[in-house]
Amino acid sequence: MDKCGSAMEFLENKNILITGATGFLAKSIFGGENLEGSTKCQETLFTVKSSKRDDSFGTQLIEKCIILIVKVIGKDLFQVLKKMWGGDFDTLISEKVCLVPGEVSLSEMGLKDSNLVAEMKNQVELIVNLAATTKFDERYDVAVGTNTLGVKHVISFAKQCPNLKLLVHISTGERGGLILETPYKLGESLNDIQGLDIATEQRVAEEKFKQLEESGASKEAITSAMKGLGLERAKMYGWPNVYVFTKAMGEMVINDVKNNLPVIIIRPTIVTRPSTVILLDMLQVTVGYATGKLTCFLAGITAIIDLVPADMVVNTIIMAMVAYELKPSNKTIYHVGSSARNSMRYIDFQRFNYQYFTKKPWINKDGDAVKVEKVTVFNNMTSFQKYMNIRYLVFLKGLEFANKVFCHSFQDKYNDMKKKINFVMRLIQLYRPYLFFNTIFDDTNAERLRMDIQKKDRETETFLLDPKEINWEDYFMNIHFPGLVKYVFK
Q1: Cα gap 76→81, rounded to integer Å
Q2: What is the pTM of this model?
Q3: Fewer CB within a 10 Å sphere, N or C end of the chain?
Q4: Cα distance between residue 310 and residue 304, in whole Å
């Protein structure tokens, strides 16, 4: 590379603002193996979500410093850095990291110290916007505030940074069939329904919340109603959940207000833990299966699980920044996933689980090895619904009848069982699109990026960028499952 020399040289002496610092990907960026030797970055500015209370700025800062230390620096992901730098690790962190409590859903990202804001705007050269709520059933007001309006506030802040070279926005994608690396247009829906307007969606969320508060609804009732509203609005325009809906609107905001601001968008698929670090994804399916609690599973056996290790996402973010510095391009959306080039299917996931936990069964707290069998897989909703009716709903009806006959003697048991069944069915409906996933994320731009970067810089061969390099069986058997057993199983 004539201009940057290498990816690490590109990051030298750069002041970087990362929003969503306690999030999964931010920790991967900060503690990633590929950055472990880079100490020349002047400052990495982390904004950490504030609690929106009326506490003083100083009190919030102390609280957020503690949160960052516990939730980020204290994680095992940073053991590599701690081992490398030893007693100098804390000094390195204090020199390279400036802790900034903030809230992207607020104007100026909730930053209250005017002197600090002015300093940040003057110094920041790169912004990586990772702040997001990723819950599929998040409250609508929260999701709109963070995933949609938050983007607007980050863009506004970026425009006031005279030395800014690039803003990287982390998004996602959701629609059936082939998803291209093309932008969302303002007002675009997935089902061709007209009338999608971001200002209207903001007003709908605010008015619903106000109505619930004025009616004296409890916090639990408000949360439930706002979650329901989010799902309702998402499905109205063709999205399966509030997360991907509000993230799509966030992209619409970018294309509407960025003007000449240099922006690239990274769309990861389902992000797992790093492919070379024994600290892995907490898939509850595996936990339930290995502990003997999961005996059946709903999924399209040939459906795709579009997974991507976190380090591949981080590497793509870095390389996309380097490529843009070398040659600004209109190819500014990159998909990072495996469905186009090295897809894994649910049948593979089922096989890996069975192979691993028959050879290395989980030992429970009593010291007994939990024996697992092959799970019953329901390949469609009809067969699963039939199973639920026979196994649980008939018994629930009987319990309801007995409860009435015996003067509500079984009320608590009935309520508990009904709550659990409703919870399971709600999760099934929420995750149904991903259980029968038929989507391919086109990664033409990402592949071109990989090829261009590797031609210009041989050092990037140490960066995991190509999904074809992933051996899924090796990943699950030697990294994923051992990591779950070590860090997740109780």
Answers
A1: 10
A2: 0.83
A3: C
A4: 18
